[in-house]
């Protein structure tokens, strides 16, 4: 039996758990047997991690593609490229993703869901897992559509929903919509009955609209602050209402462009247990910067930020865990930033176990080790084995 000692576990900002250091036992195959707190002044023999953090790998609830592959353009011929992308994501510290399908025509949407279903059969150890898809659209506000093509938006209805997801209901984990649109309430009710997490995004909802949506079961804000009303002292909007509610996940793209670092840190302080980091990576993730094509449009990638030719912010190419690194640099709170990309997404998807319980039976190869260098403000991660 092997032991790891003197490591820390990530936790949300201001979490009341005051245990600072932990130790764990590993079996002969480096699988976690137990995780225990270390008593003050104890000297347990083992590999000393000197206060580094141990965490699960990241879960990305919003990622649109990579290596030149856009998920709404999937075909069976592209499965090898998809698998290559999943291998790349594992190397980038991401254990699982909800492949995001932005607003598109019905036929390619259904084809992509079928291809994702088939690709799940190719899962193997140390390859990023395909969870249920995240449908971002098409029931979005035209005024807040961002980079979503206008021609693919439509009014929410049970008929339109069935046309898109019939037969694939179990292949979907999340759906983003604008809850203030007529017909949205019936769609929300149906999605919740199917066990699908409903997200408010690309929406013009005010605080009152948002409160009604949360009461109907909407459980997350898609890319907080972006493509929705902001946080204003006379108009709290979806963000203010979600913070007041207290149980709504707050998706955040922590690149420093989509949301100013000061606002990102304020959001973390306002709702520490609700913050969930997402990447919002687009197809150029993993490729050189410059000009790329997205459907029939040109995508300009510079310093990890993706824009359309008219300047519309479209997404990023930065890996998920870089969001934790940047948030830590802004906030000096590594434990909370690690939590936001590793444990918080699991909570959105229904994980009930605490972190100690979740780690038990996990192979060390599926975990991450994080080191915080306060002098340079660098949060560095690597695979734990």
Structure described in brief:
With 385 residues, this protein is of the alpha/beta class.
Q: What do you see in this structure?
A:
The structure is a single chain. This protein is of the alpha/beta class and 385 residues long. It has two domains: 2-55 and 353-383, Urease, subunit C, domain 1; 57-348, TIM Barrel. It contains eleven helices and 22 strands. Strands 6, 9, 10, 11, 12, 13, 14, 15 and 16 form a nine-stranded parallel β-sheet that branches. Strands 3-2-1-4 form a four-stranded mixed β-sheet. 48% of the residues are buried.
Find the count of extended strands (DSSP E, 2+ residues).
22
User: Beta-sheet strand percentage?
Assistant: 25-35%
**Helical amount among residues, as a percent range?**
25-40%
Alpha-beta classification: alpha/beta
Point out poorly predicted stretches.
none
Name the CATH architecture of the largest domain: Alpha-Beta Barrel
Number of helices: 11
CATH topology of the largest domain: TIM Barrel
**Average pLDDT taken over every residue:** 95
CA distance, first residue to last residue: 16 Å
Q: In CATH, what is the class of the largest domain?
A: Alpha Beta
Q: In angstroms, what is the radius of gyration?
A: 21 Å
